[in-house]
Amino acid sequence: MPKKTIAQAPEKLTGIKQTPIPLTAGGLKAIQSALSHIKEEVGIMKGISLLSKLNQKEGFDCPGCAWPDPDEKRAFLAEYCENGAKAVAEEATKNRVSPLFFATHSIEELGKLSDYELGKKGRLTHPMYLREGSSHYEEIKWEEAFTLIGKTLKSLNSPDEAIFYTSGRTSNEAAFLYQLFVRQFGTNNLPDCSNMCHESSGSALTETVGIGKGSVTLDDFKYADLVLVIGQNPGTNHPRMLTALTETKKNGGKIISINPLLEVGLKNFSDPQNPMQWFGKGEELTDLFLQVKINGDVALLKAILFLLNEKEKQNPGAVFDHNFIQKQTLGYDAFINNLEQQNLAELIAQTGISKKEIEAAVEMIAANKKIIVCWAMGLTQHKNGVDNIREIVNLLLLKGSIGKQGAGTCPVRGHSNVQGDRTMGIWEKPKEAFLDSLDHHFNMKSPRKHGLDVVEAIEAMHQKKARFFLGMGGNFISATPDTEYTAEALRHCDLTVHISTKINRSHLIHGKKALILPCLGRTEKDMQSSGEQFVSVENSMGVVSKSEGILEPLSEYLKSETAIVAGIAKTTLENSTVNWTAMAENYDLIRDAIEATIPGFENYNTRIRIPGGFYLPNNARENNFSSTHTGKANFTINETSDIVLEKDQLLMMTIRTHDQYNTTIYGLNDRYRGILNERRVILMNNEDMRELDLAANDLVDLVSHFDGKERKADQFLVIPYNIPRKCTATYFPETNVLVPLQSKARISNTPTSKTVVITVHKRK
Ligand SMILES: Nc1nc2c(c(=O)[nH]1)N[C@H]1C(S)=C(S)[C@@H](COP(=O)(O)OP(=O)(O)OC[C@H]3O[C@@H](n4cnc5c(=O)[nH]c(N)nc54)[C@H](O)[C@@H]3O)O[C@H]1N2
Ligand SMILES: Nc1nc2c(c(=O)[nH]1)N[C@H]1C(S)=C(S)[C@@H](COP(=O)(O)OP(=O)(O)OC[C@H]3O[C@@H](n4cnc5c(=O)[nH]c(N)nc54)[C@H](O)[C@@H]3O)O[C@H]1N2
Ligand SMILES: [Mo]
Q1: Mapping DSSP to helix (H, G, I), strand (E, B) and coil, where does residue 447 land?
Q2: Rounded distance, CA 142 to CA 144, Å?
Q3: Ligand 2 atom 23: the closest Cα is on which residue?
Q4: Ligand 1 atom 40: residue of nearest CA
Q5: d(CA 12, CA 734)
Q6: Which among 41, 229, 255, 646 is placed 20 to 30 Å from 459, CA to CA?
Q7: What is the pLDDT of residues 282-318, one digit of tens each?
Q8: Parallel, antiparallel, or unpaired: how do β-strands 543-547 and 535-538 relate?
Q9: For residue 264, which phi and psi values (nearest 5 degrees)?
Q10: Which of the listed residues 663, 711, 734 should we mutate to test ligand 2's pocket, taking the one with most ligand atoms within 8 A of CB?
Q11: Is 376 in the pocket of ligand 1 (CB under 6 A)?
Q12: Which residue from 741, 717, 744 is spatially nearest to 729, judged by alpha carbons?
């Protein structure tokens, strides 16, 4: 086992408190929690004025999740959720990480802080430099930082020795400029957080319906007969989705939730935006809860489809939409043949759910035509993550439930502009047509060789095939798997650079030299020489809208992400065909270039100024599947889980608490699971605990097992929880050290963060 370093959060306990699991999500408690974070980080007066602009048509886009805003009416003063308010509080905090802070704290010392403690230190104010061999970061001038980057990039043997990572908060304008720079430099090494997130969704949807994005709009939730929410915890990660689910219910629709955990938000919701609901019982959301075992979803979906097919055979035409299947799809016969050969009892056994409950779901699906399926990380982060999503598409195709009102696919995106970044070309496997278009417009020659994704980039750095790392946002070391291995990889680099708003662990796990470049956040005004600028973002449903900060920048040394990209490009590229200075001074010019190179952005500069923005074209929404490789929507045959647990082994999913945004830890509470003031916990089934001779609050160490190799994380408290047999849950990023880099999804290469095979060892 590798030696533990400061790449891992300290293995310290913080003093657990437990409360009963609440009966409802949202309500007055959500408002209280939002305000307490705002008060502590920002101050109440400034905080309230900030929140009044959050997600408003003339305000700024929430730096939290990518859930859309209503097209028409927006809640006066409060078009956001508790966790959006926390995201804003975190960014607009009063606390500062200044050069003095870095002068008085060595890297080693900072590494001993937890991610929570580190985050609370506040916003970065100055560009900082770590010289080779030094223990402390020191201030550096912007121009010197750009020169150092340019010099290092030019010293590489090949442009492919550089890695350019992106996290999904980056605006369309910054993302477009960034990928343009990277391609002019000569590589497609553009891994992004999507590789660890919805890559499985993108792969599956592109193959089956010809677009890697979801097909529904927010309005569709009003018209759906049935919504399935699979592998997703909206109460915490997309709270405003609960308002949409409430609309479905109000209009007589039903909801099925499929999850190993009975997440509170899916059970019952009181809308904090509706004072009438602050007290009292809230809205019951889930009509049928299927408590699936971790990674039992393909088996469950197959069992459902098997039983639907039986029903269809008894009463042809009553269950499937043959008109749609015939006109729009390919592969139906092969799919049905395969389905009929399945062993129903074996499938059901893999799910951990009773046949009766599965039949209840079958009844609901058979009886309804307008079905939306929503999903997130519970489906994508498995070896068969792509299969999971393809199986959902099979269901929708059989029912003809796509490309019509109230029906379709809804992968619920994570970061607020992760979808937009892809649209802008942040992708290691760009389409030929996109590169042609860049080449034509900018008179350049983009590299055609595909670049490295996150997992491949880590391997390349580890093998010293890549020697330069730049992170446009994000927190690479804490977000990626196999923490110690990834740390070694980053330490092999000549230079690591992070463009960040806040200090995080990635600044401490550095190459021989390192830079931290502080940038403006969403909440701040972006003043350039041509005047104040705004940026644009694309939400989970393909709406592109404007975002404009309202606060004065917290330090005169901050630059916008676009200005930083332009600065780097100017010192790196000789004879570039792009006028980087002009683009960074006036974002309208960037939008003109986007319009000229990416379909769907006609009259970008005009339409982006219309309050609420505009929808991008979406072939699946328009019931047109001609863009798939076959020219039709495709049925597929998918694989169930192949994990076989040995004696005493358990499956672990790594999930988010209610008080974090990925690697940013807002607080130590997971209120909706009744676990307070502690993150080092493992949620376990009572029977499994009994078999392993474990009691509540026992202190254990966790060991993961993959390919004959063990990885270890120490000090977790056992919490008995309502979770299926052999399934456990822990919080990420603490347990990322257990996630093996080489355990990844077929096709999408997404790390299998929801299926880690572990054993649990009681501390002596
Ligand atoms: N407040 C807040 N908001 C966020 C984030 C955040 O950290 N904090 N992160 C953002 C990002 S980047 C993303 S990608 C999304 C993530 O949003 P989610 O995907 O909701 O986040 P996770 O906590 O990973 O939760 C996964 C859910 O899937 C379930 N699950 C796990 N394994 C399985 C399985 O095998 N089958 C099924 N059916 N269910 C399973 C878990 O019990 C859990 O309910 O949220 C975004 N929004
Ligand atoms: N085990 C496990 N691992 C996972 C997951 C899991 O479920 N389990 N989920 C995966 C998923 S879905 C994702 S998306 C990734 C997330 O991976 P990342 O996107 O890399 O991580 P974040 O924690 O979202 O990044 C937070 C940092 O972004 C910086 N930041 C914040 N706002 C801005 C901004 O406006 N501009 C810039 N330049 N920087 C900013 C701050 O410095 C902050 O510290 O993690 C993945 N890792
Ligand atoms: Mo994500």
Answers
A1: coil
A2: 5
A3: 663
A4: 378
A5: 11
A6: 646
A7: 889 999 999 999 999 999 999 999 999 999 999 999 9
A8: antiparallel
A9: -55, -45
A10: 663
A11: yes
A12: 717
Rounded CA gap, 466 and 152, in Å?
A: 12
- Around ion ligand 3, residues with a beta carbon closer than 5 Å are 197, 414
681 sits in which H/E element: strand 681-684
Q: What domains appear along the chain, each with residue ranges and CATH number?
A: 17-22+643-762 (2.40.40.20), 25-90 (no CATH), 93-197+440-609 (3.40.50.740), 206-411 (3.40.228.10)
Q: How far is CA 702 from CA 23, 482, 633, in A?
A: 31, 14, 44
| Nearest atom in ligand 2 to 472's CA | 38
Query: Residue 383: which of 757, 748, 13, 746 has the closest Cα?
Result: 746
Three-state DSSP state, 616 = coil
Average pLDDT over the chain reads 95
Residue 392 token pair: 């959902």
Q: Which of the 8 DSSP states describes residue 646?
A: P
**pLDDT over 70 (residue 456):** yes
Report which ligand 2 atom has the smallest distance to the Cα of 664: 23
CB 451 within 8 A of CB 187: yes
Cα of 370 vs centre of ligand 1, distance in Å, is 25
Helices (H), ranges, 521-622: 561-572, 580-585, 587-597, 604-607
**What are the strands, taking DSSP E only, across 438-584?**
468-472, 495-500, 513-518, 526-528, 531-533, 535-538, 543-547
pLDDT for the residue numbered 47: 87
Instruction: Give me the sheet containing 371-375, strands edge to edge.
Output: 288-290, 254-258, 226-230, 371-375, 408-411
Residues in Cβ contact with 356 at an 8 Å cutoff, skipping those fewer than 6 apart: none
Q: Which residues 6+ apart lie within 8 Å of 229 measured at CB?
A: 245, 255, 256, 257, 258, 259, 266, 286, 374, 375
Cβ neighbours around 558 below 10 Å, total: 22
pLDDT score recorded for residue 157:
98
HEC secondary structure over 467-481: CEEEEECCCHHHHCC
For residue 407, how many other CB atoms are within 10 A of its CB?
25
Task: Give counts: helices (H), strands (E), the chain.
Answer: 30, 33
Q: What is the pLDDT of residue 679?
A: 98
Beta strands per DSSP E along 248-365: 254-258, 268-270, 283-284, 288-290, 329-330
d(CA 374, CA 614): 22
- Of 63-67, 234-238, 571-575, least confident by mean pLDDT is 63-67
Q: Assign residue 494 a region: left if phi > 0, alpha if psi is -120 to 50, beta otherwise? A: alpha
- How far apart CA 633 and CA 168 sit, in angstroms, is 29
Q: How far apart are CA 650 and CA 384, in angstroms?
A: 18
> How many whole angstroms separate alpha carbon 35 and alpha carbon 29?
10
Nearest ligand by distance to the CA of 483: 2
Atom 47 of ligand 1: nearest residue by CA position? 237
Phi, psi for residue 634 in degrees, rounded to 5 = -110, 130
| 8 Å CB contact between 378 and 750 | no
Report strand pairing: 675-676 vs 371-375.
unpaired
Q: Which of 359, 305, 358 is nearest to 332 (CA)?
A: 305
Q: What is the pLDDT of residues 67-122, one digit of tens each?
A: 988 877 666 556 678 888 898 899 989 999 999 999 999 999 999 999 999 999 99
> Is pLDDT above 80 for 280?
no
Residue with the smallest CA separation from ligand 1 atom 11 is 414
Q: Sheet harboring 128-130: ordered strands across? A: 138-139, 128-130, 513-518, 495-500, 468-472, 162-166
